[in-house]
């Protein structure tokens, strides 16, 4: 495993971060808690030291599972969680009101079994709450030692700039993969210029870029990933198959699964500190950690880039 520094922090994170949304057991199909605990421990045993979670994942359930899994190993883990999205029975509400943040952080600390969070992130912007008010509350919590560094997720350049005048933001967590490259235009240059680390989600496009789904999948009724990612719409799905064929050739060359190529590609893009990858079992976690061993040639990175620009521009950009 390779480790990279989030700029301007003491956080040296594994370049592959374990995502835990599925472990909330409410959006990605049935996921067994004991399997999730074994998955987290297998990830840590494989060199992953960075875990991403959120209260929104199963209304706190994922955080509780993470807390159980890291018991006794807290000092070996860089823990990222979030605030500002409330999971209701059928949706996700954006809420960054000060009173919500104050409640959420204590609940997160309790569920995670810790007295500090390494990276506390605003999950999504909330248009109904002035950003100043949310940041003022967050800064107080940081001063109290409840979290070490502040990050944001799903922010625009404009919001980043607004936040910059009010607080030190060390990281941005956006959606980024071969199939979603919109951040390259303005957000990546902004983060590079301002030394903000990119920790990106969507690396495997919800599993699609592992190459294991070759037919449009029929996910279980309670597996909603196709609501979050639009790649599973028939018209987009058919366009993506050519990219998978190109990735097959590279996977054959490196004698590895297609997922390694998707992860390696993301890690070789400018500004990326760590890529988030979800896993539902030990095998997936171990495999995803091992993707750290692959380095594509500059020519291969360009070949993928050109293919996406030519064939998938309307999907990815
Ligand atoms: N900030 C945000 O708004 C936001 C949004 C989305 C996600 N996230 C974070 O990012 C993390 C990753 O989520 P994602 O949406 O990017 O998911 P992803 O990593 O693209 O996909 C994860 C899914 O792919 C499949 N998979 C993973 N590794 C595999 C392997 N080696 N072989 C075969 N299948 C494999 C598993 O599902 P199956 O086995 O069922 O196919 C797994 O649940 C989340 O857990 C969360 O922490 C953040």
UniProtKB/TrEMBL annotation:
InterPro entries (UniProt xref): AKR (IPR020471), AKR_Detox_Biosynth (IPR050523), Aldo/ket_reductase_CS (IPR018170), NAD(P)_OxRdtase_dom_sf (IPR036812), NADP_OxRdtase_dom (IPR023210)
Domain NADP-dependent oxidoreductase, residue spans: 15-307
GO molecular function per UniProt: oxidoreductase activity
UniProt keyword terms in alphabetical order: Oxidoreductase
An annotated GO cellular component: cytosol
PANTHER family: NAD(P)-LINKED OXIDOREDUCTASE SUPERFAMILY PROTEIN, NADH-SPECIFIC METHYLGLYOXAL REDUCTASE-RELATED
Descriptive protein name: Aldo/keto reductase
Organism of this sequence: Ulvibacterium marinum
């Amino acid at each position: 495993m390779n480790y990279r520094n989030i700029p301007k922090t003491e956080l040296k994170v594994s370049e592959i971060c374990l995502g835990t949304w599925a472990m909330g057991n409410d959006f990605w199909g049935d996921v067994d808690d004991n399997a999730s605990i074994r998955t987290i421990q297998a990830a840590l045993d494989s060199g992953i030291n960075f875990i991403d979670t959120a209260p929104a994942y199963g209304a706190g359930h994922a955080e509780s599972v993470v807390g159980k899994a890291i018991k006794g190993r807290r000092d070996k883990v860089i823990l990222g969680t979030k605030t500002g999205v409330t999971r209701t029975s059928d949706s996700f509400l954006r809420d960054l009101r000060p009173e919500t943040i104050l409640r959420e952080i204590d609940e997160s600390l309790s569920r995670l079994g810790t007295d500090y969070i390494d990276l506390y992130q605003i999950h999504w912007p909330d248009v109904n709450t002035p950003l100043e008010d949310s940041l003022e509350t967050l800064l107080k919590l940081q001063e109290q030692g409840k979290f070490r560094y502040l990050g944001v997720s799903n922010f625009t350049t404009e919001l980043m700039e607004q936040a910059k005048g009010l607080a030190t933001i060390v990281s941005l967590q956006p959606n980024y993969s071969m199939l979603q490259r919109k951040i390259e235009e303005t957000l990546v240059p902004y983060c590079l210029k301002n030394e903000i680390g990119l920790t990106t989600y969507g690396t495997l496009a919800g599993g699609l870029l592992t190459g294991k789904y070759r037919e449009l999948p029929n996910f279980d009724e309670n597996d909603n990933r196709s609501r979050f990612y639009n790649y599973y719409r028939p018209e987009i799905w058919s366009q993506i198959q050519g990219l998978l064929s190109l990735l097959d050739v590279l996977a054959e060359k490196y004698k590895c699964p297609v997922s390694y190529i998707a992860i390696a590609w993301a890690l070789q893009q400018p500004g990326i500190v760590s890529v988030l990858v979800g896993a539902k079992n030990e095998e997936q976690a171990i495999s995803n950690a091992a993707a750290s061993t692959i380095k594509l040639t500059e020519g291969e990175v360009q070949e993928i880039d050109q293919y996406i620009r030519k064939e998938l521009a309307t999907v990815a950009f």
